[in-house]
Write a structure and sequence with these properties.
The protein is mainly β. It has helices at about 1-25, 75-85, and strands at about 85-100, 110-120, 125-140, 160-175, 180-185, 205-215, 220-230, 240-255, 260-270, 280-290, 295-310, 320-330, 335-345, 380-390, 390-400, 410-425, 425-435, 445-455. The radius of gyration is 22 Å and the shape is globular.
């Protein structure tokens, strides 16, 4: 055990040294080419999905290079220019997570490091390639149940160790017209309530897919994706780490003028290995905001409705609705949000609205007690207060959970989060969740602290 601890301490010291060295050296480095989409650098309403949105930088937009316009495929030195003229990024997130959950004699303590190395080639006649590697390492002892390490005496923290290809796709882009991608890629729609990348977890969810985007059809953006496999957050070592699929995703969006942005969607999931996830979902969403000319105050609103039914080999008889509404106002540095979300349920086994490919951590409380909707459905009523303090942000959210079918009070939850930039490339964050169970699940307390480095 002494040898193991010595090795762990050495690895932590090495990681800390590398992070510090990289941060100190950054003024001489070019700015990061990949815009962040992090829960680690922003705090925003969980019901809007942005609070835990993508913890990983997105692939950069294709850029013109010396190869653009050539008629022949790159050869010789052209291959070198194709690679050297591309974009490269490094993303590291060092995080500690503590979980105290009733029913377990021991607390979970997970200290993990997520490292992402990525590159995108230069553009050649509209074509480019993206490759991204991801590694998750547990530092110190792994006193948590990662779902693959066998430590079931601890509460679950779904951050399994492992290394994998996170993204690998070929892309063709015609600026302002259309985009096509083939391969392993990140796919997200709207606030990720139905399709997301689960960016909060250390191992990201990605999709082996063909994705086609028509950027402007008389003001309409149309996206179609065929998904062959879902690479889940459980990792390659898990029996449920891969979800074979024959799913079709359709998403349409356009401006609705002063009312905001309007989107409509059809997500037709065919999950042969997990047939209960074979679901057809149809819905529409309107989201908008208004800012006063002085920008000292503003309003924001979102309404959404969806219908879901069982499909293909799903053994359940499911037919349910989804409703969501949120209204917010901002004044100076503060934003207040009031919202409610309904996932229908009848009380019959399997007859409840489900979102198996969502970024679930962003919704219904950060304690993750409602990753699967109970058969009696779920009503989530919440209030959120956000504040900007200097260059940092803070948020407090209170949830009250009830059954859709019957009058059962599931419980309530208090959440808090704060993030602040230490340097442009280095962000720190803390988060806390306290779920108080009444008639569903168990009392649970979670705490996180993290550092994110993006180069």
């Amino acid at each position: 055990m002494a040898v193991q601890n010595t090795c762990s301490l050495s690895r932590v010291a090495l990681v800390a040294s590398l992070l510090a060295s990289a941060s100190a050296a950054l003024p001489s480095l070019p700015s990061h080419p990949c815009p962040q989409q992090p829960p680690t650098s922003s705090v925003s309403p969980p019901a809007a999905g942005a609070a835990e949105r993508l913890a990983t930088p997105a692939p950069p937009a294709p850029q013109p290079s010396a190869l653009a316009g050539q008629d022949a495929a790159p050869a010789g030195d052209a291959w070198v220019r194709w690679l050297k003229g591309g974009r490269y990024w490094v993303h590291a997130r060092l995080r500690y997570e503590d979980v105290d959950q009733d029913g377990f004699a021991k607390r979970a303590n997970a200290f993990t490091l997520r490292t992402v190395l990525g590159m995108q080639t230069a553009d050649w006649k509209g074509f480019s390639g993206t490759l991204e590697f991801e590694d998750v390492t547990a530092l110190f002892a792994d006193d948590y149940n990662s779902t693959t390490n066998g430590n079931t005496q601890f509460p679950t923290v779904v951050d399994p160790e492992g290394a994998e290809i996170n993204q690998a796709f070929l892309e063709h882009n015609r600026k302002g017209s259309w985009n096509g991608r083939l391969g392993r890629q990140r796919i997200t729609f709207d606030n990720q309530r139905f399709i997301g990348n689960v960016g909060w977890r250390q191992n990201e969810q990605t999709f082996d897919a063909v994705k086609l985007t028509a950027a402007d059809i008389q003001g309409l953006e149309a996206v179609y994706a065929y998904v062959d496999n879902v690479n889940r957050i459980n990792g390659d070592a898990s029996a449920v780490g891969d979800l074979p699929s024959h799913s079709h995703l359709v998403h349409l969006s356009r401006s609705a003028g002063a009312a905001g942005s309007l989107s409509a969607y059809a997500y037709l999931l065919d999950s042969g290995s997990v047939p209960v996830n074979s679901l057809d979902t149809y819905g529409a969403r309107l989201a908008g905001k208004y800012s006063a000319s002085s920008k000292s105050w503003g309003l924001q609103w979102t309404v959404e409705a969806a219908y879901q039914q069982d499909a293909r080999d799903n053994p359940n008889d499911l037919e349910q609705e989804y409703l969501f509404g949120e209204l917010g106002g901002s004044l100076d540095r503060f934003t207040l949000l009031l919202g409610g979300e309904l996932l229908g349920g009848s009380g019959q086994t399997g007859d409840a609205f489900q979102t198996p490919l969502a970024t679930l951590h962003a919704f219904n409380g950060w304690a993750d007690k409602f990753l699967t909707t109970p058969d009696t459905g779920l009503e989530d009523r919440y209030v959120s207060l956000e504040a900007r303090v200097g260059s940092g942000k803070g948020q407090v959210v209170w949830h009250d959970f009830h059954a859709d079918h019957g009058d059962t009070h599931y419980g309530s939850e208090l959440d808090f989060a704060a993030t602040w930039p230490i340097r442009p490339e280095l962000t720190a964050g803390v988060k806390y969740a306290l779920y108080d169970a009444s008639n569903f699940a168990t009392d649970t307390e979670k705490f996180w602290i993290w550092l994110t480095l993006t180069l």
